[in-house]
Write a structure and sequence with these properties.
- The chain is α+β, with helices and mostly antiparallel strands.
- Helix 4 runs antiparallel to helix 5.
- The longest helix has about 60 residues.
- Strands 5-7-8-4-3-10 form a 6-stranded mixed sheet, covered by helices on one side. Strands 6, 9, 11, 12 and 13 form a 5-stranded antiparallel sheet that branches. Strands 1-2 form a two-stranded antiparallel ribbon.
- It is about 40% helix and about 20% strand.
């Protein structure tokens, strides 16, 4: 008795299938009496409704062809930290049901009907990258033509995985994918095709897209790969959706204020190196730049290291180096005014080679006929040669000459000190010139980079 129960179950299953498959030949007989001018009686399609759990084919060795297209109507959110793209799609599917067939001329001219999708077999198409459960609204309808062709559309809010590269933020372009596949049917049972051409999908999406915010649609491409799971092979259609960020918001709120602060810091080199106001001015700018970065931190990606973060780090580093250079120059000039240290020979040679009044920073003094070298009278113990006259000086002249030599000897340390102070001042001007040129080079490079990235 126990061995006969599986046979009984198989017999009942075959009986149920045979009852469902009845209806005469290749197609069901649609009750034409259900068609009138007032509408269609749902009982006319009852035989079709009873088969909604089965794939609508006459021969199960023939795969069902399902044509797919979609319209991207909104780009809602791009989460760089979680690597997610949230969008809104209208998915369109089309397939043939060979069991639905009627002649419009025999059915008061009705060639197309709308039926509740819950009463029809629907292909189990899903998006492989989707991270949400399908929340399709209930009560959707499908168009059914007299030849058995079914058109079904459904709206979907899709949160999908997308490999986001934010290095070029805010001038970045992302390439996300939507892969449509069947969850249950292999390629022996279901083949996927295109209802529309790719360019039609792209143009339609651009025309109906509702969001005019941060992202814009560049284009859509497609490939048709196969997915193998063990011995099963599934048919797929993969769409590549290219989107680009609109950078205007970030340029105005991030790059322009940062560029202004760096430019003001560069203009501070026009303040004299001996001025006591340069260091407090640079400290104020540095504090303001830090406050700016803290306020604008919410606009930056929370993950990864984009190029704009490197730019901000370089700006901050330049301002810090500029402040340190100002502190060092201020200390050096203060020390030179009190007791100037001797300048190393290599540094003195460097000043002689690279520095002149024409090459100095805007703060360099423009004095004519003033060099950096030590004249012979500035060197200790070296005096101008005196021509010996072939006659002896009188005692009065000897006394005057001795007084003059004593005065010159007393003035020599003061002249030498003043010359050392002038050398250190020239050294400070050379440091300002070097840093000022670095600022100009950095600013020009930044502007060129922004223009190139914006136009590509």
């Amino acid at each position: 008795m126990e061995g006969g129960w599986p046979l009984m179950r198989g017999f009942l299953l075959c009986l149920t299938v045979s009852l469902l498959l009845q209806g005469g030949g290749d197609t069901f007989t649609i009750n034409r009496s259900g068609f009138d001018q007032d509408g269609v009686d749902p009982a006319a399609f009852q035989a079709v409704f009873d088969r909604k759990a089965f794939r609508p084919v006459i021969n199960y060795s023939i795969p069902t062809e399902v044509n797919i297209s979609f319209t991207l109507s909104a780009i809602l959110e791009v989460d760089a930290q979680l690597q997610l793209l949230t969008s809104f799609l209208w998915i369109d599917m089309m397939w043939d049901n060979p069991f639905i067939n009627w002649k419009p001329e025999e059915c008061v001219g009705i060639s197309k009907l709308t039926l509740s999708a819950e009463n029809l077999w629907l292909p189990d198409i899903f998006i492989v990258e989707s991270m949400d459960v399908d929340q399709t609204s209930p009560g959707l309808t499908a168009y059914v033509s007299s030849g058995g062709r079914i058109y079904y559309s459904k709206p979907m809010r899709v949160t999908s995985i997308c490999n986001l590269d934010i290095f070029y933020f805010p001038f970045d372009q992302q390439n996300c994918t939507f892969t449509f596949s069947s969850f249950l049917y292999t390629e022996d049972s279901m083949l996927l095709g295109m209802e529309k051409e790719v360019w039609e999908i792209t143009d339609m999406s651009r025309n109906v897209i509702q969001t005019q915010g941060e992202w814009e649609l560049l284009g859509i491409n497609k490939v048709t790969p196969k997915m193998s799971v063990g011995s099963k092979v599934y048919d797929q259609i993969m769409f590549y959706v290219a989107i680009r960020r609109r950078p205007t918001l970030y340029v105005i709120n991030l790059l322009v204020p940062s560029g202004f602060l760096v430019a003001i810091d560069a203009l501070s080199f026009y303040l004299p190196a001996e001025s006591e106001n340069r260091a407090p001015f640079k400290i104020t700018l540095l504090l303001g730049y830090n406050v700016f970065l803290l306020m604008m931190n919410d606009l930056l990606p929370s993950s990864g290291t984009p190029l704009i973060s490197v730019y901000f780090a370089l700006c901050l580093s330049l301002m810090v180096v500029s402040l340190l250079e100002t502190v060092f120059i201020t200390y050096l000039l203060h020390l030179a005014n009190i007791e100037p240290p001797p300048m190393p020979q290599w540094l003195h040679s460097l000043l002689l080679h690279y520095t002149s009044p024409r090459k100095c920073c805007p703060t360099a003094p423009q004095k004519e006929n003033k060099g950096l070298g030590l004249t012979p009278t500035h060197l200790p113990g070296l005096k101008e040669p005196v021509e010996l006259v072939g006659k002896m000086s009188s005692p009065k002249e000897a006394e005057l000459n001795g007084h003059t030599e004593s005065t010159s000897t007393q003035k020599e340390p003061e002249v030498q000190k003043k010359h050392l102070v002038d050398l250190w001042v020239q050294f400070s001007h050379m440091m300002d010139t070097l840093l000022f040129r670095i600022y100009l080079l950095f600013t020009a490079s930044s502007i060129i980079t922004v223009i190139v990235l914006w136009n590509t």
